[in-house]
């Protein structure tokens, strides 16, 4: 089961939330979970969760997405018993309150949502809530090129899906040829991590002008999944927080 949960954070007076605090909150997750499970998880190529911090309606929010039931049990259950955590690197406590599950669904639910919907997809909008990037040619991409985004999502989907497996060798390349970037509002926004700055981008991008209906539906499945898995690299450390919006053609179009 895929789940997205949120905690409202209370910071000490004078402290402001910034996205790089996500890497410190990942440390809290590892501190509170079972050490044996954490050690086993770190041997996996793909993490079964993503997390980031952001502001919503003027309030600091910790967003955690788990991709498996086991990740939910080991990461979220321990936090539900707490009302505050101590951030060692910053020397202060953070209050946690108003826990709630934002959404939850199965891999098969995401597939059904788009494969069986009789309406055709008009465009797909991705909002990068925290800085995102993908590795490319030994560096970091500073634009959400469809091929890089989809290749990354196919890898994550195949690592955990209990439904279908997507042909990882050719799918991203084929989908990239079937779509275009139709709009974007982006800016460079590096992510600070352990004393270094990772080149990355934030903002919104829209994909559309799909050449065939099935390409649009498969892209919708993968980008919907991005709201759980995150986009690109280091999504367990606070990067790549993603909100997905799928727009359909109106009836009769």
Which characteristics define this entry?
CRISPR-assoc_Cas6_C; 7 helices; 5-stranded antiparallel sheet; Alpha-Beta Plaits; globular; alpha+beta; 4-stranded antiparallel sheet; 253 residues; 2 domains; 13 strands
CATH class of the largest domain: Alpha Beta
- CATH-defined fold name of the largest domain: Alpha-Beta Plaits
Please tell me how large the radius of gyration is.
Answer: 18 Å
CATH arch. level architecture of the largest domain: 2-Layer Sandwich
Counting DSSP H or I runs of 4 or more residues, the number of helices is 7
- Let me know the largest β-sheet: 5 strands, antiparallel
**Total discrete domains:** 2
Enumerate the spans where pLDDT stays under 50 for 5 or more consecutive residues.
Answer: none
Instruction: Report the average pLDDT across residues.
Output: 95
Shape: globular
How many extended strands? 13
SS content category: alpha+beta
Note the run of SSEs as H and E.
EHHEEHEEHEEEHHEEEEHE
Strand order of the largest sheet: 2-3-1-5-4
- Distance between the amino and carboxyl termini: 34 Å
| Approximate strand percentage | 35-45%
Percent of residues in helices comes to 25-40%
Organism: Allisonella histaminiformans
InterPro entries: CRISPR-assoc_Cas6_C
Pfam family, one: CRISPR_Cas6
Protein name: CRISPR-associated endoribonuclease Cas6
Structure description:
- The chain is α+β, with helices and mostly antiparallel strands and 253 residues long.
- The chain folds into two domains: 2-105, Alpha-Beta Plaits (2-Layer Sandwich), CATH 3.30.70; 108-248, Alpha-Beta Plaits.
- Helix content is 31%, strand content 35%.
- It is built from seven helices and 13 strands.
- Strands 2-3-1-5-4 form a five-stranded antiparallel beta sheet.
- Helix 4 (107-115) runs antiparallel to helix 7 and helix 5 (146-160) packs across helix 7.
- The radius of gyration is 18 Å and the shape is globular.
């Amino acid at each position: 089961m895929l789940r997205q949960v949120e905690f409202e954070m209370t910071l000490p007076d004078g402290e402001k939330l910034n996205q790089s605090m996500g890497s410190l909150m990942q440390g809290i997750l590892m501190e509170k979970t079972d050490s044996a499970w954490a050690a086993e998880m770190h041997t996996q190529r793909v993490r079964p969760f993503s997390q980031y911090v952001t502001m919503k309606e003027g309030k600091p929010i910790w967003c955690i997405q788990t991709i498996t039931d086991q990740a939910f049990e080991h990461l979220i259950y321990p936090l539900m018993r707490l009302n505050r955590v101590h951030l060692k690197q910053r020397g202060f406590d953070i209050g946690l309150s108003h826990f709630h599950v934002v959404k939850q669904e199965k891999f098969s639910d995401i597939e059904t949502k788009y494969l069986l919907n009789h309406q055709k997809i008009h465009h797909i909008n991705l909002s990068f809530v925290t800085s995102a990037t993908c590795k490319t040619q030994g560096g970091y991409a500073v634009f959400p090129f469809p091929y890089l985004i989809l290749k990354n999502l196919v890898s994550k989907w195949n690592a955990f899906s209990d439904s279908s497996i997507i042909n990882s060798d050719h799918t991203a390349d084929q989908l990239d040829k079937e779509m275009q970037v139709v709009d974007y509002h982006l800016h460079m926004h590096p992510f600070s991590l352990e004393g270094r700055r990772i080149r990355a981008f934030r903002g919104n991008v829209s994909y559309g002008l799909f050449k065939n209906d099935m390409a649009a539906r498969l892209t919708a499945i993968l980008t919907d999944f991005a709201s759980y898995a995150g986009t690109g690299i280091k999504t367990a450390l606070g990067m790549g927080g993603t909100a997905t919006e799928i727009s359909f053609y109106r009836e009769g179009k």
